[in-house]
Design a protein that fits this description.
It is built from 1 helix and no strands. With about 80 residues, the protein is an all-alpha fold. The protein has one domain.
């Protein structure tokens, strides 16, 4: 019976080690996704700025708010 209990504890420890490894990998992957999201947001804002400018006269867009080029109207 002690062999079975020892085996179960070893399995539990192995699962715990694997779970810790996965948590680290998930954190790294989330950091990469966050950087990619920021890059995509910046690219979108850049495209909107170009479309709102005279560089592409046939394009139309509103300048993104975080560009600071929008005049806010007091309500």
């Amino acid at each position: 019976m002690s062999d079975v209990i020892d085996f179960v504890y070893r399995l539990r420890n192995m699962a715990s080690i694997s779970a810790d490894d996965l948590r680290g990998a998930i954190k790294e992957a989330q950091a990469v996704l966050d950087r990619l999201d920021k890059f995509a947001d910046d690219a979108e804002d850049g495209a909107q700025l170009i479309a709102a400018s005279d560089l592409a006269p046939t394009w139309t867009a509103i300048a993104p708010e975080r560009a600071g080029m929008i005049r806010k109207v007091a309500e």
